[in-house]
Design brief:
Elements lengths: L5 H6 L3 H18 L1 H36 L6 H38 L1
Helix pairs in contact: 3-4
Length: about 110
Amino acid sequence: MKHKNLKDTDNAKSPIAAQVGVKAARKIKARRNAEQRVWFGLGMMGLIGWSVVVPTLLGATLGIYLDNHYPSERSWTLALLVAGLAIGCFNAWHWIAKEDQAISDEQKDLDKEE
């Protein structure tokens, strides 16, 4: 009876062993980056919040100025507040879509490594 060398079994990893190795490496990486992800998430919430608030406030401020200096029967404040809010929501949607694409690309790269 012939016995296989240990080196032969190490070089010929089974597909299951390779998948387990990749998943274990992914978990180790996730544990190392757990705190970083929390701060990243909080930063993204702040970025999204400010990307909505700033255009909304700018629209309202411009509207107040126009209402005070050029009075009319329609409210510039309300119109520009809504326009600023719409622009802010578009900005937030843009940032979320961009980050979602980056996460998706990272996941595809990890899947290719398997």
